[in-house]
UniProtKB/TrEMBL annotation:
Gene3D superfamilies xrefs: Metalloproteases ('zincins'), catalytic domain (3.30.2010.10)
Cofactor: Zn(2+)
Highest taxon of source: Bacteria
Details of cofactor binding: Binds 1 zinc ion per subunit.
Keyword annotations of the record: Hydrolase, Metal-binding, Metalloprotease, Protease, Signal, Zinc
Residues in the signal sequence: 1-18
Record-given protein name: M48 family metallopeptidase
Organism of this sequence: Luteimonas salinilitoris
Pfam families per record: Peptidase_M48
Family label: Belongs to the peptidase M48 family.
Ranges of residues in domain Peptidase M48: 60-247
């Protein structure tokens, strides 16, 4: 009964949103928040982060990251290039990076320990930019809105039939089920898709797509314990490396053509 009602609730909420096709052919539910508002939220979050977290004053790091970001952004469609891309380097040992709607890219200083040259850094940044251009933030917010709305529908339906206590329990328990069975699988799909888009972007910008493999090998070497794959927002590392290797081989001609056309980044 509960799975049926959850599916019904999700269908009711998501029916109010738009559908589109992702870069890899997935059907996406988007539109819970207008794109202009998403861009504004991304810019606001980035400004708040810069105000609260220490920003690197190392001009070489800042120029290095900016050079890689700009090279990748030049490969985006014109409308995506015009949103005002901006980058910042945050002093944090976490080997990570992010990109937000509105063209905001953040890199933590810890990433330089695993991204050991410009090609490996490009693999990280292109992946994060791939999330933005693939509308993953829009999709995630829409999914979360759908899950939240669906749980309220389930709670109301069960509560009206079995009592308020049962309805509240369904909402609370359903939140765990939604996170594990509805939201996280979408996130893993997004991570894999960002790998595809990012590797294509970096090759088109003149960065060696094979460096994405080296990056993730470094990540594994530096990483600690991982949660089970079914509770992770990232694909299994070894599976990911295999896919990156296979895709890199197909993208080498794109990379070589970019270099022959004069796209030869010299970032660091």
């Amino acid at each position: 009964m509960k799975p049926f009602l959850f599916a019904l609730g999700a269908a009711l909420v998501l029916s109010a949103c738009a559908t589109t096709t992702s870069p890899t052919g997935r059907t996406q539910y988007v539109g819970a928040v207008p794109q202009a508002q998403l861009n504004q939220l991304g810019a606001q979050a980035f400004a708040e982060m810069k105000a609260k977290q220490k920003v690197s004053n190392d001009s070489r790091q800042t120029a290095y990251v900016s050079c890689v970001v700009n090279a990748i952004v030049r490969q985006l469609p014109p409308d995506a290039q015009r949103i005002g891309w901006e980058s910042a380097v945050f002093v944090d040992d976490n080997p990570n990076a992010f990109a937000l709607p509105g063209g905001k890219v953040g890199v933590y200083t810890g990433i330089f320990g695993v991204a050991r040259d410009q090609d490996q850094l490009a693999a990280v940044i292109a992946h994060e930019i791939g999330h933005v251009t693939s509308r993953h933030h829009d999709e995630r917010i829409t999914r979360q809105a759908g899950a939240s709305g669906a749980l309220q529908v389930v709670g109301s339906l069960l509560g009206s039939r079995y009592g308020e206590g049962v309805g509240n329990a369904a909402v609370q328990g359903g939140g765990i089920a939604a996170q594990a069975g509805f939201l996280l699988p979408g996130s893993r799909a997004q991570e894999s898709e960002a790998d595809v888009v990012g590797q294509q972007l970096m090759a088109s910008a003149g960065f060696d797509p094979r460096a994405a493999v080296n990056l993730w090998q470094n990540m594994i070497a530096a990483g600690g314990s991982r949660p089970p794959q079914w509770l992770s927002t990232h694909p299994d590392p070894q599976s990911r490396i295999g896919e990156l290797q296979s895709r890199a081989a197909r993208l080498v001609p794109t990379y070589e053509q970019a270099r022959a056309s004069g796209r030869v980044p010299k970032c660091g």
